[in-house]
Amino acid sequence: MIPSEYYETKLFLLTQIMDEARHLEVFPKRALANGGGLLSEAQSGPKFRIILDATDFTEMSALMHIFAEGFVQTLFRVGELISFNEAEKTIYRLCAQDESRHLGFGVMRP
């Protein structure tokens, strides 16, 4: 739980949720628009258990905002590099910008 006096942190985390929702919306739409359809996800157990098991906000933030978001940002940058058309390049570039904000929050947080 985040104390109420840290309202800026709470507001930022809300913007992060909106960014992630946009990512969850754009990629399935793009997959369907390309005619490829959606593939099923392999069920390998809880993927983010380490983040959920963090002992405090600082540990959770480091795991999520630095390690996880940094990895996802790298995926988006590579996606932009290997995209076949300008629409995909734009999608990946904008998603990578979102991830840069998330990563920046984790790095700048004391």
Structure summarized in a few sentences:
The chain has 110 residues and is mostly helical.
Word description of this protein:
The chain is mostly helical and 110 residues long. It has a domain at 50-110. The protein contains four helices and no strands. The chain has helices spanning 7-33, 49-52, 57-82, 86-108. α1 packs antiparallel against α4 (86-108). 8% of the residues are buried.
N- to C-terminal separation?
Answer: 17 Å
How many β strands by DSSP?
0
Secondary-structure element sequence? HHHH
The count of helical stretches stands at: 4
- SSE-based structural type: mainly alpha
Cα Rg? 16 Å
- Average pLDDT, rounded to a whole number, is 86
Q: Which structural traits does this protein have?
A:
0% strand, 4 helices, mainly alpha, 110 residues
Describe the secondary-structure layout.
Blueprint: H1 7-33, H2 49-52, H3 57-82, H4 86-108
